């Protein structure tokens, strides 16, 4: 396992909120090797002590569940190197703080800085066995993703490149495979004959949280749909892999993407929604309009809500809509995959009964829950159907999603890394949508912060499901 880590962008949100808590959690669980060391690298001219103080504060805020002893141990092992990633000398110097061993170089940076950082790392002469982690979004469109893949492969083998998508470290996401393939009851009905539609929803109460520098040039489609939600779609739709090895697993995912038709032209207009939040109240706190947030350039027309309906055009799924949707500053958190089955025939109960409601399987994330809505005969009339939910809650996940991802990246595995061709396929799918939105072929709607999203666009509201 790699014992040295260099984090670019270490003064940013990602390190403080996710990576540092995950690493401290791994230390607490004894899952990192002795002598594990991390150097933070960022533009700010900080000394190591000031960096340690600010990480300690982040840990107190974002990782209160980790023991103070583990947090302190992690913080004491931190070093800091002021670094301009476009400067080869700076990058080499930052890498040298970690000695001659292989390192894990983590690019917690906006995607525009990836090419320069990769070039600087290639010139720094890293020890054999070193790896690079690139955060999503991988590039900014299909062309830049292709160029970035080519640039990486000039200096690093694919096995040294780890394209991170933290959703792959989510317990429920991994459980989609177990649920589908280890249960007799789901797989036989997991197809177009029995499934009417699938919804993959990631609604957040979280607003911009000071991330304009990254988010305003990304937007919900690139931030969530192109990466995380397409990964969820792949797991729901994939054929069973021959093994859970990195090749078979990723081949099956790529196959799904290759079968998704990119919704071009009028399709992109009909099957997508984009919107941006206006001022409102979320969970009792005032949220300013997105365009009023510091660092936002309103003329960019960045969306904070994106919905895209796709079809997987293969034998199993043809004709079944997969709706992927995510929005910020919404009234409640709803993070779930829901599989809506076709309604049962009503013949079983004769003509004088109501139509049975369709079964819905919901896989909730964060907290990780599962529920299956079914119909049973109520206590009264034999012909009256009653709706009940079979509910289960999974134990909270340990290690955290980033913890799992970091263990995989440090340990040399690639199953949880997005392969280069996969990243390109995901861009191919969203590219026509990006184009249609850029050309204003789809109106940019508005929704008040704290609401359910743009009026009439909530998939559950539209269809009157149980919530
Ligand atoms: C990140 C996105 O990748 O995922 C954020 O950039 C989003 O905008 C986040 O809030 C959601 O994941 P989690 O695990 O923080 O709920």
Automatic annotation (TrEMBL):
Positions of substrate binding: 166, 204, 223, 328
Limits of the Glucose-6-phosphate dehydrogenase NAD-binding domain: 7-175
Active-site residues, record numbering mapped to chain: 228
InterPro entries: G6P_DH, G6P_DH_C, G6P_DH_NAD-bd, NAD(P)-bd_dom_sf
A molecular function GO annotation: NADP binding
Residue span(s) of domain Glucose-6-phosphate dehydrogenase C-terminal: 179-459
Pfam families associated with the record: G6PD_C, G6PD_N
EC number(s) given by UniProt: 1.1.1.49
Cellular component, GO annotation: cytosol
Domain of life: Bacteria
Keywords attached to this entry: Carbohydrate metabolism, Glucose metabolism, NADP, Oxidoreductase
Residues covered by region (Disordered): 446-467
Gene3D superfamilies membership: Dihydrodipicolinate Reductase, domain 2, NAD(P)-binding Rossmann-like Domain
Family: Belongs to the glucose-6-phosphate dehydrogenase family.
UniProt cross-references to HAMAP family, sorted A to Z: G6PD (MF_00966)
Function, as annotated: Catalyzes the oxidation of glucose 6-phosphate to 6-phosphogluconolactone.
Protein's name according to its UniProt entry: Glucose-6-phosphate 1-dehydrogenase
């Amino acid at each position: 396992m790699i014992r040295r880590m260099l984090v670019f962008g270490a003064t940013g949100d990602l390190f403080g909120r996710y990576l540092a808590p995950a690493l401290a959690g791994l230390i607490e669980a004894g899952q990192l090797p002795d002598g594990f060391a991390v150097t933070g690298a960022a533009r700010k001219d900080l000394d190591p002590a000031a960096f340690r103080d600010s990480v300690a504060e982040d840990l107190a805020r974002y990782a209160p569940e980790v023991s103070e002893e583990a947090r302190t141990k992690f913080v004491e092992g931190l070093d800091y190197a002021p670094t301009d990633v476009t400067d080869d000398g700076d990058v080499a110097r930052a890498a040298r703080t970690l000695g001659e061993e292989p390192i894990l170089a983590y690019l917690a940076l906006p995607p525009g800085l990836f090419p320069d950082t990769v070039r600087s790392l290639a010139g720094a002469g890293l020890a054999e066995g070193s790896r690079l982690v690139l955060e999503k979004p991988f590039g900014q469109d299909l062309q830049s993703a292709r160029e970035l893949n080519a640039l990486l492969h000039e200096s690093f083998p694919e096995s040294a490149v780890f394209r991170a998508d933290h959703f792959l470290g989510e317990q429920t996401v991994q459980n989609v495979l177990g649920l589908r393939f280890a249960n007799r009851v789901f797989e036989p009905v997991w197809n177009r004959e029995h499934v009417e539609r699938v919804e993959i929803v990631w609604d957040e109460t979280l607003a911009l949280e000071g991330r304009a520098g990254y988010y305003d040039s990304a937007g919900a489609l690139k931030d969530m749909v192109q990466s995380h939600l397409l990964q969820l779609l792949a797991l729901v739709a994939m054929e069973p892999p021959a093994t859970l090895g990195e090749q078979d697993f990723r081949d099956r995912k790529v196959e799904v993407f290759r079968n998704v038709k990119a919704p071009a032209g009028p399709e992109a207009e009909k099957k997508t929604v984009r919107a941006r939040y206006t001022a409102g109240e979320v969970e009792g706190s005032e949220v300013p309009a997105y365009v009023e947030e510091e660092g936002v350039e309103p003329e960019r027309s960045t969306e904070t809500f994106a919905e895209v309906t796709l079809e997987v055009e293969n034998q199993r799924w043809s004709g079944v809509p997969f709706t992927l949707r995510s929005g910020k500053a919404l009234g409640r958190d709803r993070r779930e995959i829901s599989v809506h089955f076709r309604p049962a025939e009503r013949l079983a109960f004769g003509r004088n009964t109501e139509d049975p409601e369709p079964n819905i399987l919901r896989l909730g994330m964060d907290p990780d829950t599962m529920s299956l809505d079914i119909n049973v005969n109520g206590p009264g009339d034999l012909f009256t159907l009653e709706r009940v939910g079979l509910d289960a809650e999974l134990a909270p996940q340990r290690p955290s999603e980033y913890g799992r991802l970091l263990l995989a990246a440090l340990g040399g595995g690639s199953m949880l890394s997005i392969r280069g061709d996969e990243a390109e396929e995901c861009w191919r799918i969203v590219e026509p949508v990006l184009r249609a939105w850029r050309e204003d072929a789809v109106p940019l709607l508005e929704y008040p912060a704290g609401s359910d999203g743009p009026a009439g666009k909530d998939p559950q509201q539209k269809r009157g499901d149980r919530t």
